[in-house]
Amino acid sequence: MNQMNWSAIAPEIVLLVMACVVAMVDLWVTHPRRLPTYLLTQVSLAVVALMQLWAFNDGATVYAMQRMVVADPMGHLLGLFSTIAVMVSLVYARPYAAERDMLKGELFTLSLFSLLGIAVMLSANNFLVVYLGLELMSLSLYALVAMRRDHADATEAAMKYFVLGALASGFLLYGLSMMYGATGSLEMGEVFKAIGTGQINEQVMILGIVFIVAGLGFKLGAVPFHMWVPDVYQGAPTAVTLLIGGAPKLAAFAITIRLLVEGMLGRAVDWQQMLVVLSVGSMLLGNVVAIAQTNLKRMLAYSSIAQMGFMLLGLCSGVVSGNTLSAGNSYASSMFYIVTYVLTTLGSFGMVMLLSRQGFEAEQIDDLKGLAKRSPWFALVMTIFMLSLAGLPPTVGFYAKLSVLQSLVSTNVGGYLLLAIVAVLLSLVGAFYYLRVIKVMYFDEPADHAPIVSTGDVRAVLSLNGVAVLAFGILPSWLMTLCVQAIVKALAT
Question: Which residues contact 317 (CB under 8 A, 6 or more apart)?
Fold first, then answer.
């Protein structure tokens, strides 16, 4: 029990070492496109991804670092997807950053450190480890947002992100301290056992849960803790927006499962009610306000708020009347939803960067006018992303929404059936602004006749991204099975 077991954190060790190596190597790089730094970063990420895949296939759950860390299939699977997300983000980001004097070693080093923070969060079995990973990820992202020091919008976005992010961390830390005061332990398993005894201070524990849910709501960008999302998404350079909107969402989902399910499942009746309020509020505000947006990045920000609301629905139905029989199905549907959302988000912001060029940001919806005439293939790819976000077949977004709704309906509880109906109606509202983007691409005359210039790797990865969204929509069972296996094994320990 008291073994350190360094092999359990091998991916994190490799990430830490390679982040330092990349920072040192970049000091001697003179290539204008930072090719050696870029290739070294991508190779490092590929090695970490293979390590996560190997560990997931092994299927073992290992506790390490005095039980402060747990290496289990859920952490490895989300770690694999997070690593791939950062790899894809850097492919899209490199040409974009080069044209804006952002292609420096810091872009790659900070991306690796943010992924290291994500990896620490994914493997946390202790409140302090959760906070350590959260701060490492957040501080790296704050610095990335502010990389364009001469850009007023980016600087303002960095300040807002920093202040509200610090507030969110304070909420979470205070809630965790209350839970420690109520249960006498920082370890998830011990907290779970303490809650099961029923002999803890009820008032302190409830207050702790409220602050923890508020902190998680900030990190997920759920209403009413969503204030930072539109401004940061719009103000940050698009490359950094993608780094914020991709892998960190997987980390936020992971710590939600670690804290609320693995640590506090015995109090699900309390936190599920709070998540229902966050979920409905996020879907309502996100979908309604997105309709009024003309800025594409801001529209995708409000879309993110609505999507997080839909994902939270799955977490609301895990425990019904004290019965946990539906927990595996419900949490797996949420995990599938967040993974496929990140996959679609990568492509959506990748398209924004593809259409941007030096001195021009393709941030307005009108910038997509007539894209079908300029590039029929990429208009089709963007259409796939928009249909997936709207939840329309045959894309993976349809199956993701269907799986969450199925987890609600299968409870046979009137309140959850009503929630499913509300979710469907609000998704219909959201379909409007996604279909508007498709209408602009196919039926409006081009406002910009400049040729779409980009590197071959960006075009190839973006195309594969679109094909993956379509393929997982037609054949979703493989990915869904992986999510179910990961959640079931996480709950079993």
Answer: 272, 326, 330, 407, 408, 411, 416
Tokens (6 digits) for 171? 């909420």
Query: CB–CB of 342/246 below 8 Å?
Result: yes
Longest dimension (CA), the chain: 70
Main-chain dihedrals φ then ψ at residue 297, nearest 5 degrees: -65, -40
pLDDT in tens, 55-91: 998 888 888 888 899 989 999 999 999 999 999 999 9
Contact 314, 333 (CB under 8 A): yes
Per-residue pLDDT of 414-442, as tens digits, reads 888 999 999 999 999 989 999 999 999 99
pLDDT digits (tens, 9 = 90+) for 10-41: 999 999 999 999 999 988 888 878 888 999 99
Q: Is the pLDDT of residue 322 over 90?
A: no
pTM of the model: 0.93
Rounded to an integer, what distance in angstroms lies between the CA atom of residue 262 and that of residue 247? 21
Q: Give every CB contact of residue 399 below 8 A, 6+ residues apart in sequence.
A: 340, 472, 473, 476, 480
Residue 56 tokens, joined: 């997931």
Report the amino acid identity of residue 321: S
Burial classification of residue 6, based on how many CB atoms lie within 10 Å of its CB (0-12 exposed, 13-18 middle, 19 or more buried): exposed
Radius of gyration of the chain (CA): 21
Distances (CA, A) of 238 to 131, 150, 252, 304, 483: 27, 16, 21, 15, 29
